[in-house]
């Protein structure tokens, strides 16, 4: 598990909605989803002040995107590296961890598991080192046939965006079941990669930040014909917050 410690700039790329998807397009869609989902979580959970977000139209919805320059630079850099690892088949999951500043406890853990869709005609091969969620060294190994960049998926961008829309709606509705955050909070991004991934020096190993005695809510998933992303949120049980 690695997290990022510095910041650079990335320009978010968009894909025409009426086209079918290549591996390159799939990578862009997944990283753009992560960017949007992270922004939505930070807004809905009040990690950043609401006045630091602007409204944008995306996936047929109105979504909130940060205007904080420092946060934008940080997220853009993370997504840029994410695209590189996704292209190489190195990403297993992304986790957004919400921690209490005063208590130092992990209060929420939003997790997005990434797998390779078996419908890609063998363009990517994956073998997992294990499925134990509590094992900090649970890693993925994979190889990518570079010719798969030119192969076409079976789904259009519009179909994928419809699936993503449902996940963003669930994130927005999360305030109805998640406990209130009763202290100032910070967040961190953790990315699980395979052991052979090339890791820049600006990144470092990290604790997985699991939550003991937690509740888990599974959210919807989406597929691009190349990648599948499953979403869930784990949170600290309310009765323990009130002790």
Give a description of the structure.
Mean pLDDT is 79; it is low at 5-15 and 119-151. The chain has helices spanning 23-44, 69-87, 157-173, 238-241, and strands spanning 2-4, 53-58, 61-66, 91-100, 106-116, 124-128, 140-144, 185-193, 203-205, 214-223, 227-236. Helix content is 26%, strand content 32%.
Rg over C-alpha atoms, rounded to the nearest angstrom = 17 Å
Please estimate the helix content. Answer: 25-40%
How many helix segments? Answer: 4
| Sheet/helix structural class | alpha+beta
Number of strands: 11
The residue ranges in which pLDDT falls below 50 over 5 or more consecutive positions are 5-15, 119-151
Strands across the major sheet, in which order? 8-4-5-11-10
Principal-axis shape equals globular
Give the terminus-to-terminus CA distance: 31 Å
What proportion strand? 25-35%
* Mean pLDDT over the full residue set: 79
SSE arrangement, N to C: EHEEHEEEEHEEEEH
Biggest pleated sheet: 5 strands, antiparallel
What does this entry show, briefly?
This protein is α+β, with helices and mostly antiparallel strands.
């Amino acid at each position: 598990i690695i997290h990022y410690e510095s910041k650079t700039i990335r320009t978010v790329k968009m894909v025409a909605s009426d086209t079918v998807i290549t591996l390159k397009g799939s990578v862009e869609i997944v990283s753009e989803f992560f960017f949007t989902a992270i922004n939505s979580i930070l807004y809905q959970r009040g990690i950043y002040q609401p006045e630091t977000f602007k409204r944008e139209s995306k996936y047929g919805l109105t979504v909130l995107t940060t205007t904080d320059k420092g946060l934008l630079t940080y997220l853009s850099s993370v997504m840029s590296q994410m695209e590189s690892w996704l292209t190489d088949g190195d990403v297993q999951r992304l986790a957004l961890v919400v921690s209490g500043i005063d208590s130092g406890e992990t209060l929420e853990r939003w997790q997005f598991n990434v797998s390779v869709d078996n419908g890609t005609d063998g363009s990517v091969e994956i073998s997992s080192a294990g499925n134990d969620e509590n094992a900090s060294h649970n890693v993925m190994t994979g190889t990518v046939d570079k010719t798969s960049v030119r192969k076409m998926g079976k789904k259009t961008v519009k179909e994928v965006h419809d699936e993503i829309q449902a996940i963003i709606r669930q994130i927005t509705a999360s305030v109805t079941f998640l406990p209130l955050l009763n202290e100032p909070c910070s967040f961190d991004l953790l990315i699980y990669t395979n052991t052979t991934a090339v890791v820049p020096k600006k990144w470092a190993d990290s604790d997985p930040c699991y939550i003991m005695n937690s509740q888990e809510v599974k959210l919807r998933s989406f597929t691009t014909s190349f990648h599948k992303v499953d979403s869930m949120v784990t949170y600290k049980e309310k009765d323990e917050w009130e002790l």
